[in-house]
Amino acid sequence: MTLIEVGFILFTYFFSLPYILKLGTLGTVQREEYFDPLTLQKTVNDFDNSLLILLGGIIGILFIFAFVLLYIQNMKAVYKLQVRKENGAHINNFKEDCMELVNNKFHITLLTLPSIGVIIVNIIPILFMVCIAFTNYDMNHQPPSFLFTWVGLKNFQTLFTTTTTITFGYVFVRVLAWTLIWAVIATFSTYFGGIFLAKLINNKMTRCKKLWRTLFVITIAIPQFVTLLLVGKMFGDYGIVNGICNQIGLTGFLQDIGLVSEGLSYIPFLSKPGWAHVMIILINIWVGVPYQMLSATGILMNIPDEQLESAKIDGASEFQIFWKITMPYMLFVTGPSLITALISNINNFNVIYLLTSDYVTGNMAYANSNAKEVDLLVTWLFTLTNDYSNYKMASVIGICVFLISAVLTLISFSRMIAGNKEEEFQ
Length: 426
Hints:
The protein is mainly α. The chain has 17 helices and two strands.
């Protein structure tokens, strides 16, 4: 504990304290270059870096918070040792304490490094992102050349504002709606599609079961980003699918019934709203169903045959067996993974980005907010960050994604796997 105290004091004094003291302003000295006539070289002044100040300040505050908690726990431990000594109980020496960390308290030893990793990899970035949402960190305020500062709730107000120049409110509602629609349809279409495909392949009437499983597993063996890029090119405006559609007259037929504009010589599978939304969902089903099929196959094989035979003897139809026995069992076993899939689809960057990388919006409101009709919140966030350096608004959207994912996860877990259901399936 003494070594930890010395390390904490040195770390705070020499590293984090200067950053913590500047957290209120995030720096006041702008970076400037000037020519030094003595050295005949350009010299940079001792400037402030807002990004380092914010990051160093967050780390410093976390260290202070952790040290306070550790100190409190240490005082409690000292008090307990004092009481034990007064009662004549044995007090461990240093060697015995070390052995305790290998024997009775081995779980603490194992969890120490993972806990530190979670703090470094998850907690600090999340806190940093949350803080960025309350600043004006964007293309015009990029360290180290420029400073950024706190702006309070201005960015959150901007996200829900719709004017002739600011269209974030208009775009956010529509992107959020498409994100939720996509997440629900993509999750449950692949989930039920995988179950139906597994039941079809495992049916007693189905022949060459190993062949069918192999064909679907091949799609999993190919890296997903390769598949998506290839499929995106195939369904492009001048891809092979459009070429075939032109030859068989499908493009002209769709123009006659009004589904394709007269001025187009192709079907806008991935280049127009509506068409692109439907195609993204269909392609995701084709890519995602084999994964669910493999999972469902193993679970279906574990359903007790006694339950199925008893239901048949009682006169239950195949649909009733599926709805009353198979699906409850599947939902019970796969409930947590289904929730994970839902959250993953909310943040499904690969499918949307790789399929619509060439998509260009014709809606000026979307373009003004650097978004597209097919964007999810996560792809919109990526575009704002990577292409336009609008870190402040990207952080606000990131907070919204986090809140949505957290709320859906809590609701789903409480509803789907609440109570003790193990006895129902034993």
